[in-house]
Specification:
Mean pLDDT: 75
Strand content: 15-25%
Number of helices: 13
Oligomer: single chain
Largest sheet: 4 strands, antiparallel
Number of strands: 13
């Protein structure tokens, strides 16, 4: 059918408006006014068009139907077409076009996506389930698909590579009036597709809203902190504070986005003052090192001094206790001696005298001298002899053992000397006793 229609309106058809063509009703060409062959006139074209329509809509074999006069001249006629076949073709064409139009409303929602259906520009429904779904075709309804599980990334201060800096975004002023150059990224997901598509005032650019919110939050956090905190000490804490603040800003805007993470890629002083900052950082590190050394020395000296003070206090307390105990013992001893002296005064005096002499002679050098009329001087350095004997036994253990096991026989002169010493000691004791009385 379409070929027949194209053949009717084909201007390249050699039989269009001419005498040949195989149609029985076709009239021969008429010469023009000059008697030569020329283009066909309008009547001939009209008759040829009617014949072709008649053959298309039920009279393909030709046949002369009733003709109507055209323009009142010539006695020609126009065939009456049959519109029965034409109506069926138009119905089929309309049904096919309607089916294609309705089929254009089918679309697919992938896993992790949300579809928003708009009816004449107004939100009609939201489709969260994945699968094959349908809406009314355009222009009645249209749809927008948003990926709610996709992790979206916004770069602030750079594009693609931290070296490709955007100084307008990266330069920030700290709380102590210093400038830092910071590049960071924000990652977020879409929580509400409807809010993400329609709750913005930047002409459908929610990514730009997220970027501006992240830049605003980071500038506020950096503006409250010192430069050392931002550069060295608490970069992670700065990022966490910025994340909380940007989430509150996006919630206030109703963007429907959920911030996942903020990562500081690079933060440093501006290039013009980096050397000065490096020197200042080195000086600060030296200061910290010296402080740590001083603290370590104090931690070593102070406990030692405290231990020494505690030892002295304990020694003083021990001496105090010893002196008190000694004084109390001497007082008790004196009381006991007084009681014994009351019972036997002579014996008690002798014992006190002997003890006093023993205490005196034990701490002094002793020389034995014969003070009688004999004239021979006998000198015995007892302290040196005792000291020499003690040193020899200490230096040679074998001699010390021999000294303890072997006792030499006394010589006759030694025996006489011992008898003389005993006699002399008894005489002195009697003399001192008489003097004491």
């Amino acid at each position: 059918m379409w070929k027949s229609i194209r053949s009717i309106f084909s201007l390249n058809d050699p039989g269009w408006g001419r005498g040949g063509g195989g149609d029985k009703d076709q009239e021969p060409r008429r010469p023009n006014q000059d008697g030569q062959d020329g283009p066909p006139d309008l009547d001939e074209l009209w008759r040829d068009f009617n014949r072709r329509l008649n053959g298309l809509f039920g009279r393909r074999g030709g046949g002369g139907g009733p003709r109507l006069p055209i323009g009142g001249g010539g006695g020609g006629g126009v065939p009456t077409p049959s519109f029965k076949g034409a109506g069926i073709g138009l119905v089929v064409l309309f049904v096919a076009a309607a089916l294609l139009w309705l089929a254009s409303g089918f679309f697919i929602v992938q896993e992790g996506q949300t579809a928003i259906v708009l009816r004449f520009g107004k939100v009609a429904k939201q489709i969260d389930r994945a699968g094959f779904t349908w809406r009314l075709p355009f222009p009645i309804e249209v749809h927008e698909i948003v990926s709610t599980q996709q992790l979206r990334t916004v770069e602030i201060g750079y594009r693609g590579n931290p070296r490709n800096k955007n100084l307008r975004e990266s330069l920030m002023l700290t709380g102590d009036q210093s400038i830092v150059d910071m590049q960071y990224t924000m990652q977020y997901r879409i929580g509400s597709a409807r809010d993400y598509l329609f709750n913005n005032d930047l002409g459908g650019k929610p990514e730009e809203i997220a970027r501006q919110a992240a830049e605003t939050a980071m500038r506020e956090v950096v503006g409250r902190a010192a430069i050392d905190r931002v550069l060295y000490e608490e970069k992670d804490l700065v990022a966490r504070d910025a994340l909380k603040l940007v989430q509150s800003i996006l919630d206030r805007y109703g963007l429907g986005a959920s911030v996942v993470d903020i990562t500081i890629q690079q933060v440093q002083p501006p290039e013009q003052v980096q050397e000065a900052f490096a020197d200042a950082n080195k000086a600060a590190q030296d200061r910290e090192r010296l402080i740590n050394e001083g603290v370590a020395y104090a931690n070593d000296v102070v406990p030692r001094a405290q231990g020494m003070a505690a030892r002295l206090m304990q020694e003083a307390e021990g001496y105090r206790s010893s002196a008190i105990a000694s004084a109390e013992g001497d007082a008790e001893r004196f009381t006991k001696v007084m009681e014994e002296y009351a019972k036997a005064p002579r014996v008690t005096r002798d014992r006190l005298y002997i003890e006093a002499m023993q205490q005196v002679f034990s701490n002094t050098s002793k020389i034995m001298v014969d003070g009688g009329n004999g004239g021979n001087l006998l000198y015995l350095p007892l302290d040196k002899l005792i000291a020499g004997a003690g040193g020899a036994t200490a230096a040679d253990p074998t001699r010390r053992d021999q000294a303890t096991t072997t006792t030499p026989a006394p010589s006759p002169r030694g025996a006489a000397t011992d008898d003389f010493a005993d006699t002399r000691r008894e005489a002195l004791r009697n003399r001192d006793r008489d003097a004491f009385r």
